[in-house]
Amino acid sequence: MTTGGGATHILIFPFPAQGHMIPLLDLTHQIATNYAGRISITVVVTPKNLPHLHQLLSVHPSIQTLVLPFPSSSKLPTGAENVNDLTPPFFLTFIRALGGLYDPLIRWFRSHRSPPVAILSDMFFGWTHRFAAELGIRRIVFSPSGALALSVLYAMYRDAPPKSDVVSFPGIPNCPKYPWLQMSPMYRSYVDGDPDAEFHRNGFVDNMGSWGLVVNTFAELEEVYLDHLKKELGHDRVWAVGPLKPIVDDDDQTGPTNRGGSFSVPVDSIVSWLDRCDDRKVVYVSFGSVAVLCNDQMEALALGLEKSGVHFVWAVKEPTKELLDGGCGRVPPGFEDRVVGRGLVIRGWAPQVLILGHRAIGAFLTHCGWNSILESTVAGVSMLAWPMQADQFINATLVVDHLKVATRVCEGVQVVPNSDDLARAFIESVSDDRAERQRAARLHEAAVRATKDGFSSAKDVESLIDHLVAPETTSK
Ligand code: UDP
To answer: What number is the ipTM of this complex?
Structure first.
């Protein structure tokens, strides 16, 4: 089925968390840019998430939106429509509440004159598999996690290993055993019998039966795990399309800046601050869009930065009042005065891609969120790894142990690192002869190549589109 003009109509359904929305909207941008005549797009969001589409829609006014009210839930904080509005205990309830969009979406489809022939939806919307089956359309899973992490998630949710000291995944090549506490807290809640976690687990099992899978990764980075997923799901059902490129619009004079938030420090000031620094001597510190450190961790980190003497940019997520009152997210008083001139603290949202791409950045202390890892890889910046939760321990396996472009400096969401160890790691991270740096530079070349015409990820996007526009009876 097509919309007017012969284009194949697809529905894109991003999960409302920055780490999930950003890459799927980047892919939407890429499809709209390169396949405007062949594909027409509708994006589903709830009202408060509409501003996150602003940049995409300003570049591609032809993209339609379907704005559906957030399903009411007495268990969620009033007005919460994005993971950004929540603290961890609510995540599973939030994911389940969004399942309430099933009926409104079905009604929209049935009333549409030319409804989508396929739905490309986030891996946290496993229920869209059943939804697609009911409508007789194709469902493609979008994974904002990498292929190794997704392989582990799929094996974990399918095999449902019971609680034990360590969990192993013998079917996944080169996959280490992980301590129980490093398994996703959502999975641990499932094992503890949480009904919302069971809904989430069922969604992951549904994901595995979906028509296709799109992963934000590239062959040169994760070939062995992509092969593993293809073996499990079908060789012609998996597309690796990364590293997805940020949406750049006419306002982005200095490169991609507006990736989902406004900045506490003007972009120009950040750039001119970095311009005054030496090449590859600045450490960038960020723990993504969700994590807020407890005050003990904030102090250890601040002390480590202070003792190291290195230049740094530290992006500090603005804590909610509740978190602040609970002893989290406070930059130690007086810290910024003590490091004035060599340290820049950005509160709230930082233009991460822009910062990582600046010649002054020499290393990135990251929580190992997959987007951060890819962005660092594209920038050719080696990492200091502090995985905390979710898929981050698995991502750290890849970048620290397999690819050796990162060094592990701490592990765990509650662990307080030693400030002397941190200081040493910061100093080493910006030393010119660090082996991780040379490897990161090589990986950067592979990352840039992957998305060029004729190379692996560009070819996979092309193949995905070819399959989407093919008649529905054609199996991939
Ligand atoms: N991000 C950003 N500025 C910030 C914090 C995060 O631009 O101040 C972006 C970052 O560039 C990445 C995403 O938000 O694209 C975070 O995703 P990631 O997978 O690294 O971590 P998560 O937030 O999901 O834990």
So the answer is: 1.00
